[in-house]
Amino acid sequence: MLKHLFKVALNWIKKEPSTDRTTKFYSKSHHILIDGKPKLDVSAAKAFKGNPNLYNPEDLLLSSLTSCHMMSYLYCCTQHKIDVISYTDNSEATLVVNPDGSGKIVHVNLFPEVVIADSTQVELAVSLHKKANELCFLANSCNFPVYHYAKCTAK
Questions:
Q1: What is the pLDDT of residues 48-96, one digit of tens each?
Q2: Which of 18, 73, 78, 90 falls between 20 and 30 A from 108, CA-CA?
């Protein structure tokens, strides 16, 4: 078994206090720093009083899962000698918030649309999304189901 360590630094500084003394409010905006990469500006989702112009943790989780599935899928296609011409996805995550303020993502829907070179491999290409999900590092790390609604056509 190989083991890899990933590191992230988070930097948050208190901004001017809210002028509304009836509620306690902290800015949700902060920076994520990963050595050797551009700074990532992050906030909470707009629904949670974050800056809607910045990425939020839910965006990043869904983006990571969508990207990881694609890379796992392309690996599977390589193993089966499928020539992938294009891959697009418009994925969705459903977040449920409980009355006590806790919450979680309860499922993710991926909608990959793949174009391949050989029309005789369309059925195999669609079926490889299941194997890609089994291999996907991030899907294997989630405690919620990831559903795939794949489409495949040949050029």
A1: 989 999 999 999 999 999 999 999 999 999 999 999 999 999 999 999 9
A2: 78
Beta pairing partners, 40: 32
CA atoms within 13 A on the CB side of 121: 19
Q: Sort 110 into a burial class: Cβ within 10 Å, 0-12 / 13-18 / 19+.
A: buried
Angle, vertex CA 140, rays to CA 8 and CA 99, nearest 5: 75
d(CA 95, CA 99): 13
Q: What is the mean pLDDT of the chain?
A: 93
- What is the chain's percent helix, strand, coil content, to nearest 5? 30, 25, 45
The pTM score is: 0.89
